[in-house]
Amino acid sequence: MITVNTREQAYQAGMTVRDLLDRNQFTFRHIIVRVNGEYVPEEQYDKAPVQDGDDVLVLHLMAGG
Amino acid sequence: MTDARYARYARNQVAITEEEQLLLGRKRVVIVGCGGLGGYALENLTRVGVGFIRVVDGDTFEESNLNRQLLCSTLNLDKPKVLAAQQRARAVNPLVVVEPVQQYLDEHNAFKLLQDCDLAIDALDSIPARFLLQRGAAEANIPLVHGAVAGWRGQVCLIRPGENLLDLLYPSQGAPRGEEQEEGCLAFTAALVGALQAAEAVRALLGRPGLSRELLVADLLTGEFTWIGLGG
What we know:
The structure holds two protein chains of two kinds.
Chain A: E1 2-4, E2 7-9, H1 17-23, E3 31-35, E4 38-39, E5 55-60
Parallel strand pairs in A: 1-5
Antiparallel strand pairs in A: 1-2, 3-4, 3-5
Chain B: H1 3-8, H2 18-24, E1 28-32, H3 36-48, E2 52-56, H4 81-92, E3 97-101, H5 110-114, E4 119-122, H6 127-140, E5 144-150, E6 153-159, H7 166-169, H8 180-183, H9 187-205, E7 214-219, E8 224-229
Parallel strand pairs in B: 1-2, 1-4, 2-3, 4-5
Antiparallel strand pairs in B: 5-6, 6-7, 7-8
C-alpha cells in the first residue's frame, strides 16, 4: 500500500511518480509532489520511483491572496 | 460585560461563551496582507470581537482588486489598503483597536510587527514574503494561520511555532507564484478562505482544538473539501 494525500492506495510494482499522477488524474498545471517529505521536481516525474509504503503528497501550488 | 458589549456580542453566544468573549477581547492579532484574504479575515475577526488587530500592507488599491477585495471600492482606488481596513473596522466595531501599518513585511520589521501579538494571519500573495512571515512568527513564538487561493481553490492550515509547514506547501522559498497566475482569484474563494482563517484563528486564540499538521483544501468548482495530513 501507499498513501496519497493521507488516503491509502494500492501499490503497483515499478510505479513512478508519473504513473501515480496519471492514475489519480492529477492534471493541474502547478503541483508540488513530495515522496516521504522529499520534493520531487517535475523533470523527475518519469523516473522517480514510488516504493511500497511511501507517503506521497500531491498539492496545488497556490499563493494568491 | 457592559450592556453595550453584551448587546453587540449577544448573537455570538452560546457558540462563544461569555468567558471566551472576554478572552477574545484581550487578544492581539496581526493580519499581514489586506487584499482578498486579509479583508475578509479582518471583517470576521472584527465582528467576533478580537481586542486588537494590527493590519500590515504597503499597497494601495487598484481596479484589478475590485473583483474580490472586500475593502476595495470605487471610492478608495489609489488609497492605502491599511487605512481602508482601519476605517471599515472602526465602522463595524469601535470596541476593536485597529493599528494600520503601511509597510510591506520584510526581514527588518517582521519580528517587531509580530512580537507583541498572540497570533498572525498569513494573507499575503507572495511566496518569499510568506516564508519571511513564517520565520517571524516562529521567532515571536506565535501561531500562524496560513491561507492561499487560486481560482476556485483555496487552502488553510495552522502553523505552530517551529512546524514550518510552508516548507511542505511550496517547493522553495524563492518559488514563483502559483496557479493563481493562470487561474486568477475569485471573490467567493477569498471570502471562504478568509473566513476559514478567522475561524481557525479564533479556535487557536480560545485554546480550542484546531487543524493539527493538516491542510484543508477547498475546491469550490467540485464542492470538495479535503483534509490532507502534513506528517509529524
